Automatic annotation (TrEMBL):
Name of this chain's protein: Kinetochore protein Spc24
Pfam hit, one: Spc24
Biological classification of the source: Eukaryota, Metazoa, Chordata, Craniata, Vertebrata
Homology family: Belongs to the SPC24 family.
Primary role: Acts as a component of the essential kinetochore-associated NDC80 complex, which is required for chromosome segregation and spindle checkpoint activity. Required for kinetochore integrity and the organization of stable microtubule binding sites in the outer plate of the kinetochore. The NDC80 complex synergistically enhances the affinity of the SKA1 complex for microtubules and may allow the NDC80 complex to track depolymerizing microtubules.
Gene giving rise to this polypeptide: SPC24
Coiled-coil blocks: 69-120
Protein keywords: Cell cycle, Cell division, Centromere, Chromosome, Coiled coil, Kinetochore, Mitosis, Nucleus
Length: 186
């Protein structure tokens, strides 16, 4: 409870006590000064006391309602702040989820490409390399420096090394030279 609410509650309690004392004093004064009140007078005083008590009770309930209202407003404000914070968090998590979905889709695409490479491209490339080897009888040096064409040609009579610099020679010359090594007698 805030200090303002506390002081108001004390003031209301003080007013309540003062009002009840005033009603009792008026009743006692009337009875003592007039040798007792007629029946109507006593009923009126009793009704006034009852109305005063009801009014004080209503004020007390209103004060308690005000305190509860302040508490509910504070809770509502806190809930609103929590709601805003949670919405921001949800938005951030939603963005992260979308990013993860995109990453997952990209990985699935890459996985399909790798699967295709391992099931189609690589075996067919290996088959073509084996076919070229059988036809040309050239054993390639795959460890050679870039720009160098190296290997060994296993001809009909003797093995012959191949050492060509592709930076110095044209692709056509290299191709013609390599095809010239292939035995045409089948």
């Amino acid at each position: 409870m805030t200090d303002g609410g506390s002081s108001q509650w004390k003031r209301n309690s003080s007013e309540k006590g003062r009002a009840l004392r005033a009603v009792k004093f008026a009743r006692e004064w009337s009875w003592s000064s007039h040798g007792g009140l007629p029946r109507h007078g006593r009923e009126i005083l009793a009704m006034e006391e009852e109305v005063a008590q009801s009014l004080l009770d209503a004020k007390e309930r209103a004060h308690q309602g005000g305190v509860e209202l302040q508490q509910l407003q504070a809770e509502l404000q806190k809930a609103g702040e929590d709601n805003t914070r949670l919405k921001a968090s949800l938005l951030q998590l939603t963005r992260e989820l979308e990013e993860l979905k995109e990453i997952e889709a990209s990985l699935e695409r890459q996985e399909r490409e790798v699967d295709e490479d391992t099931t189609v491209t690589i075996p067919s490339a290996v088959y073509v390399a084996q076919l070229y080897h059988r036809i040309s009888k050239i054993e390639w040096d795959y460890e050679s420096e870039p720009g160098m064409v190296k290997g060994i040609h296993h001809g009909p009579s003797v093995a012959q090394p191949i050492h060509l610099d592709s930076t110095q020679l044209s692709k056509k010359f290299i191709s013609d030279y390599l095809w010239s090594l292939v035995d045409t007698d089948w």
